[in-house]
Design goal:
The chain is mainly α. The chain has two domains: about 70 residues; about 70 residues, no CATH class. The protein is built from four helices and no strands. It starts with a helix and ends in an 8-residue tail after the last helix.
Length: about 140
């Protein structure tokens, strides 16, 4: 089974699990809607929407016989990962500086992981829109 076929199956199952988990939580526990809960919901939905969107784009590209990965997309991910690593280290540094403001270590860890994922996503979008620096030089 190819990578695309597996992702076509896994992404909807993952989406259903996340949405089902939120539904179960809201129906059984009646949570207090706080800024923290709203932020978690919004970030979860955004992080769920991106793979669904990419999965739809990959399926369309496969129907049009466009290769799913080319050299430019690999270079784009390498640049995005390199910049994301750099800025994620800075965000972790700031998180550890302000660790006294977090009530528990799990919250600090969760914010750090979400920040790292968001930084990678933003750097990927930035390089996708603005191009890769020095891409035309060999």
């Amino acid at each position: 089974m190819s990578y695309l076929n597996r992702s076509i199956l896994i992404v909807p199952i993952l989406a259903a699990c996340v949405i089902g988990g939120f539904a179960f939580y809201f129906l059984n526990y009646e949570p207090m809607i706080s800024w923290k809960m709203i932020t978690i919901i919004i970030l979860s939905l955004v992080m769920l929407a991106i793979p669904v969107y990419r999965n739809i784009q990959n399926a369309k590209d496969k129907k049009r016989n466009i290769p799913l990965e080319d050299e430019m997309s690999r270079v784009l991910e390498i640049y995005a990962a390199a910049y994301a690593f750099r800025y994620s280290m800075l965000s972790w540094f700031l998180i550890f500086i302000f660790r006294g403001n977090f009530p528990d270590p799990e919250e600090m860890l969760g914010i750090g992981i979400l920040a790292s994922a968001a930084i990678f996503g933003l750097s990927w979008v930035y390089f996708r829109l603005n191009g890769i620096p020095n891409a035309d030089q060999d």
